[in-house]
Write a structure and sequence with these properties.
Length: 241
C-alpha cells in the first residue's frame, strides 16, 4: 500500500530530491510550495500566510499525513505563533500532521539529545532565532555556527563536504554537546549524515531526516532505514510524538 505524505515545501527550490533519496519505495510525496527565496522576515511572513490554504488543499486530496516544512516559516511569529499555527492546522484537518519545528525537536529528543550543537547554513540572526526557540522548547544550546547564507538557492548547491566539515569542526570544538542539529530543508546533508556521526560520535538531526522520521511515525511505518543516521535506524522503536 502506498503512503502519501502531503508536504508543504517552504523553498521555491525543490527539496524533494533529499526526501526521495531517503524514502522507501512505497512512500510518495504530494508537494505544494510556499516559494521562499530569501531567509528574511518579509519572505517568511508571506509564506506563513499561505500555510492554512495549503493544508486544506492537501486534506481535500486525502493524503495520509501532512508536513508543514520550514522552521523559519512556521516560527515566523515566534514560539507562541507556532503554537497558534498548530491549533489552526488542527481545526482544518483531522489527518495526522507535523510542522518542521515539531519534527526537529522530537527528533533531538528521540536520539537522546539535550545539549544541542547547531551547524546552520542560515544568516546569523536566523540561526540565533533557532537557538532561542530550541531553548524555549526546553533544550540547551551549547554552541552554534552559521554559514550566513540568505538565499535558499545558494544553500541548495553547497558542497556536502563543506556542510559536513562545518558540523564536524563544531562538534570537535564543543565536546560538551551531545547532538548535532543541522537546520534547513534545502541543505544537501543527507548523504553525509552517517559520515558526520562516525567522525564525531554524536547523533545528527537534520531538517529533512527529522521530518521524514516524523511523517513515517505518524503514518505507522515501523521499519528501520539505514544510511541516514541513528534517528532513522531506530524507526519502529517507541518514540513519543
Amino acid at each position: 500500500m502506498t503512503i502519501w505524505i502531503g508536504r508543504i515545501e517552504p523553498s521555491m527550490w525543490f527539496e524533494g530530491a533529499w526526501w526521495q533519496e531517503i524514502l522507501p519505495d512505497e512512500v510518495r510525496l504530494a508537494v505544494l510550495s510556499l516559494g521562499v527565496r530569501r531567509l528574511v522576515q518579509e519572505d517568511l511572513e508571506r509564506a506563513h500566510a499561505q500555510i492554512l490554504e495549503k493544508v486544506e488543499q492537501l486534506d481535500a486530496e486525502g493524503v495520509d499525513v501532512i508536513n508543514v516544512g520550514g522552521s523559519p516559516v512556521v516560527t515566523a511569529y515566534g514560539r507562541a505563533g507556532h503554537e497558534r499555527l498548530i491549533e489552526e492546522i488542527g481545526a482544518r484537518t483531522s489527518r495526522p500532521f507535523v510542522t518542521a519545528l515539531q519534527a526537529e525537536v522530537q527528533a533531538i529528543r528521540a536520539v537522546g539529545g539535550s545539549r544541542v550543537l547547531i551547524a546552520s547554513p542560515y544568516p546569523i540572526a536566523q540561526t540565533e532565532k533557532r537557538a532561542g526557540i530550541l531553548t524555549e522548547e526546553g533544550l540547551e544550546v551549547t554552541a552554534h555556527d552559521s554559514l550566513d547564507i540568505e538565499r535558499t538557492r545558494v544553500i541548495a548547491v553547497l558542497d556536502p563536504d563543506v556542510v559536513a566539515r562545518q558540523a564536524i569542526d563544531l562538534a570537535r570544538a564543543n565536546p560538551a554537546g551531545d547532538v548535532i542539529y543541522m537546520p534547513c530543508g534545502s541543505l544537501p546533508v543527507v548523504s553525509v549524515i552517517d559520515r558526520i556521526e562516525a567522525e564525531t560520535g554524536q547523533p545528527v538531526v537534520t531538517c529533512v531526516q527529522a521530518q521524514v522520521h516524523a511523517c513515517l511515525v505518524r503514518a505507522g511505518y515501523d521499519r528501520p532505514i539505514h544510511g541516514y543516521g541513528r534517528l532513522l535506524r531506530q524507526l519502529g522503536e517507541a518514540v513519543p510524538v
